[in-house]
Amino acid sequence: MGSKSKKKKINKKSTALKIFFIGLFFVLFILPVLIAPTAEKHMLKSSADFVEFINVGQGDCTLIKSGNEAAIIDFGVEGSGKRIYKRLLEYGIESIDTAIITHHHSDHMGGFLKLAKKIEIKHLIIGNTTAEDGERDIYNSIISLARSMNIKIILPQIGNIFKIGNASIEILAYDSAAPEENNRSVIFKLCILNNSLLFTGDAENIVELNLAKSEAIKCDILKLGHHGSDTSSCTEFLKAASPKIAIASCGYDNSYNHPAADVVQRLKEYNIKYLRTDLNRSIRLTFNNKNTYTITTERGF
Ligand SMILES: [Zn+2]
Questions:
Q1: How far apart are CA 143 and CA 126, in angstroms?
Q2: Which of 58, 83, 99, 123 has the highest count of CB atoms within 10 angstroms of its CB?
Q3: Which pTM value belongs to this model?
Q4: CA of 107 relative to ligand 1 center, distance in Å
């Protein structure tokens, strides 16, 4: 009798331990998955065509995925290569068909060198002139790396069209002789499943005023020029482009105060909804065949 009740006690003890460890396992491993932000889980699952404005802090980086092809517009700052690579892995993207570097500033091309060593890049569209305020050293390193890795270098030319899966990119403007680097930005329109997105790099008002004369800049979505600085997004340009939504790519608490209060005010005036990577983090637009898209962000909006 004595040994039986001892056994029972031991059994009870081991059952309690089992329950404790199962509970611990649940709290440590299962619960975090269940309560993880649904937006982020949703973000990485879709196989549809999408454009993602990757949060690279105070810089620019946009990923385009259409069909089986992918493109990247700008590569953030020097430390962004690792971050971009991680994002590509999360999406299962193993090569980049087209890379565009809009202009020769480190917040647009800084992450290229690290990324190009980790993943295959097939074509690189990049201008070959640098203004005095541009960063020629980084440009030179990129060109020598691209040559050594057999990445095809393409000079931007107005009217050039590049296919990315079902999407296309058309270069609308590019002035290789502009006196300031920002205004040498390659300006182009991306058409993806009946939606259009306009990219202007860091081009400033002087360039925008010229662009505003053309119907070609009409778009559904505008990536705000120069991270939302008030050197860009002038009234005439916003009116001519008439986007429904605008995206500012800028760093949290950045010292430039991007996006500028004036720009935000103008967007509100023209009823243009806007999102910003400093607050929303990475922002993804997923497109379908019916002229519509859904917006997913790492952080709510
Ligand atoms: Zn910039």
A1: 9
A2: 99
A3: 0.85
A4: 5
Q: What is the pLDDT of residue 74?
A: 98
- Of 134, 126, 239, the C-alpha closest to 179 is 134
Write the pLDDT tens digit of every residue in 149-198. 999 999 999 999 999 999 999 999 999 999 999 999 999 999 999 999 99
Interstrand relation of 283-287 and 273-276 (parallel, antiparallel or unpaired): unpaired
What is the distance in angstroms between the CA of the first residue and the CA of the last residue of the chain?
Answer: 67
Distance (Å) from CA 7 to ligand 1 centroid: 72
Mean pLDDT over residues 62-79, rounded? 97
| Cα 164 from chain centroid (whole Å) | 16
CA 185 – ligand 1 centroid, Å: 10
Tokens standing for residue 185: 């930005």
Parallel, antiparallel or unpaired: strands 62-66 and 50-53: antiparallel
pLDDT digits (tens, 9 = 90+) for 207-241: 999 999 999 999 999 999 999 999 999 999 999 99
Beta strands in the chain (DSSP E): 50-53, 62-66, 69-73, 95-101, 120-126, 152-154, 161-164, 167-173, 187-192, 195-199, 221-223, 245-248, 273-276, 283-287, 293-297
Helix (H, G, I), strand (E, B) or coil at 295: strand
Q: How far is the CA of 105 from the centre of ligand 1 (A)?
A: 7
Residue 105 has pLDDT above 60, yes or no: yes
Task: Check if the beta carbon of residue 234 is closer than 8 Å to that of residue 209.
Answer: yes
> What secondary structure letter does DSSP report for 151?
P
Give the contacts of 192 (CB within 8 A, at least 6 positions apart): 49, 51, 64, 66, 166, 167, 287
Amino acid occupying residue 3: S
Cα 95 to its chain centre, rounded Å, is: 16
Rounded to whole angstroms, the Cα distance separating 210 from 236 reads 10
